[in-house]
Amino acid sequence: MSAFIAVVLVCANGIAQEACTDAQALEVRKVRVANELGCATGWQEIIARTDLRDDIGKTAYLKTECRRVKE
């Protein structure tokens, strides 16, 4: 059985989307979710709780990924 990890990367506007990785991101948030749909929901609330919320759209952008992990 597989589970998923929802990953939200906060990247500076100067970094190309393809180059935005865990290593290049300003901040990385990860949470285990039950299915792929879980990767697409809830991240807005996670970011809204951080100090970075004011930077999104001005100096930074979000990139979301859904990663499959084996249990």
From TrEMBL:
This is Uncharacterized protein. The lineage of its organism: Bacteria, Pseudomonadati, Pseudomonadota, Alphaproteobacteria, Hyphomicrobiales.
